[in-house]
Amino acid sequence: MSFVRFMAPKLLGAVITLLIALSLAFFLARTAGDPARNILGEFATEEQVLAKQIELGLDKPLPVQFVNYLGQLASFDLGKSLRYSRPNWELILGRFPASIQLTLAAMLIATVIGLPLGVVAALKEGRIWDRISVFIALLGQSIPLFWLGLMFILLFAVAWGWLPAGQSGTWQHLVLPAVTLSVLPMARIARLARSSLSEVLEETYITSARARGLRERTVVITHAIRNAALPVVTIMGLQAGTLLSGAVTVEFVFAWPGLGTLATQAVQFRDFSLVQAIVIVGAVTFVIINLAVDLLYGIIDPRIREQGS
Amino acid sequence: MMLGGSLTTDRKRGPRRSANRSLWLMGVPLLVLGLMVLAAPLLPLADPGIQDLRARLIPPIFLEGGTWDHPLGTDQLGRDLLARIIYGGRLTFVIAMAAVLVGSVFGTLLGMIAGYRRGWADTVISRVVDAQLALPFILLAIAIIVSRGRSLVVLVVVLAIISWAQYARVIRAETLSLRERPFILGLRAAGASPMRIILRHVFPNVGGTVLVLATLEVGTMILAESALSFLGLGVVSPDISWGGMLAGGREFIQDAWWVVAFPGIAITFVVLSINLLGDALRARYDPRKRTYL
Lengths: 309, 293
Description:
heterodimer
């Protein structure tokens, strides 16, 4: 019962956030310019533009357009792609498996490398290993990922011929894009694990555990890491949410057939409707993952559940 | 407790001094680079826009076939890479700075209002911040640029839209704790107007945080600009930015790696320096060493 009371406000909050996000997406994109003119290009005649506006429902006043937009969303209608003349929903769903595969692989690599990096840094705070891992994490946050991908292609595909440079299919195809994409979440996980763990290590219960004569390994593993895990779980969830829709440039570089590539193709063909649908799906995914993280929180840490109710 | 306290201060002295040192270590190269980029027309550089098809894809000086005329080689149209990187830095910096300025002013103001006034203003602003952070930024940028068309102003506005929520969230939290402090309570009791308190008394106290955030955000903006330009949504030729150079050189990567490698190294170096500088500033302005995500 307390769990329902813990989740209900979070669920409501997520729905409100999503509604505002979808409205923002609409107004930012719509008031910014006239999609019809942009779709047709600069040489279109006034009649063509007008016809296109009527076709897309852009001739109506903005509030009417907005209500139509919300109505469509409420009936799970994401519109039709201007270029492919197929429902956007179908196109997006077709790309989802590839995006999920890439995201999971990248998050796995990021966690396996980032977590130990952060833990070692916190345990050796101020010493050389700390410096090195902090620097690696900062470097990871500073490299343009698409450029890193290009450099990987240059080395591993062009120069040495170890791995394929693009497309998908086998696990070899997955290696380069996944490693490239893992760099940013790896850096974030490492930084947060470091700061979270070093904060916990200064708590009095750690001192008292040490004073009781527990072995350092026991103190770190059962007392410190467990308590430092919460923020790290959050950041992992958030990063996964961002990757799922934010891997645009990396997917583009490796021609990975996920949502990101679909988005860049939509841009090339000025497929405004498809771009908007992808933004919406991205926002929904992100909010759902956030909610899942909140839920996980309640399960991992009973204190939060109590506070919530 | 007392003993623990003195131990901590002793331990904190180390990182503090090293923070000051890295402030210099990072600040000086950035400053030099900034001056170089500013003074680009005065430097003995080739014209970054001049094409010379006979001198296409010349390798950098340390490879066979390189010449001192083009120390870093030339690109696919025979333009001097060194000159293009330095000139390209101008626009890259201008765009990033402008975006940070716009984003930080709006974000900070809204964050202070939300934190100070509480109530419905806080609810509305916080909700919008959450929603903004839920939108995948690069897709949102794409959507705006696709419907609006490409231009420098659009680019700066898009980047500012991406970043304002970050400031608002952090500054709101800082303001929340500030407003309960005695000096603010005293001012309120004395009848000072909210706007005056926010601008004259709250702002100076969150200024350090804004500075740290803004510094880090310059790096983020440079990365975002390069990504958008790489996708063909940012700076348009003949204007030069680092991301644009990467996009142009991508097709020639097999024959001429330097066309792609050098602009990327420039971006990484600058963003890394900015991030290190931001970290050093944070250690200085935020004794609690709090991590902003």
